[in-house]
């Protein structure tokens, strides 16, 4: 299964992000959506699971949950906006992938058998950080991730 991961759009959904996510079978948005229309457009590609970020606490995106746990292709994913707010023991909860955003810094790390994925920011560029999304592929052997830097 191909899972697209996007975060920190801050109200800007770039066409390059849509191109990168076009083959996704499910899309995860890790917060700071900024505009609910973004979720509707992403939903035209695949089902979307989204959480709120710190810029979503007021307005139309405030009703999004702060965290979300979902199973995709037999793997448990746990979503939260800032990794500093992690409120579970992922290994004890049998989580395969922790998905976060907030820092705008793309990263893929593995700790104690759990993947920690931050797709980076797909919205307005911050400092000299890349503008990016991530793609996850689930297989019988596990989950593989790659960061896709958007070319603008």
In the sheet with the most strands, the strands line up as 3-2-1-9-10
What oligomeric assembly is this protein in? single chain
- Indicate the overall shape: globular
- Mean pLDDT, to the nearest integer, reads 96
The structural class is mainly beta
Q: Summarize the biggest pleated sheet.
A: 5 strands, mixed
Strand runs, count: 10
Secondary-structure element pattern, one letter each? EHEHEEEEEEEE
Show unreliable segments: none
CATH architecture: 4-Layer Sandwich
What amount of the residues lies in strands?
A: 25-35%
Secondary structure: helix percent: under 10%
CATH topology: Purple Acid Phosphatase, chain A, domain 2
Can you characterise this structure?
With 152 residues, this protein is mainly beta. It has one domain (7-149): Metallo-dependent phosphatases (Purple Acid Phosphatase, chain A, domain 2), CATH 3.60.21.10. It is built from two helices and ten strands, in the order βαβαββββββββ. A five-stranded mixed beta sheet has the order 3-2-1-9-10, covered by helices on one side. Strand 1 (2-6), helix 1 (15-21) and strand 2 (26-29) form a beta-alpha-beta unit. The two termini are 27 Å apart. The model has no long low-confidence stretch (mean pLDDT 96).
Topology at a glance:
Layout: E1 2-6, H1 15-21, E2 26-29, H2 36-43, E3 48-50, E4 67-72, E5 75-80, E6 97-99, E7 107-111, E8 114-118, E9 132-139, E10 142-149
Parallel strand pairs: 1-2, 2-3, 5-6, 6-8
Antiparallel strand pairs: 1-9, 4-5, 7-8, 9-10
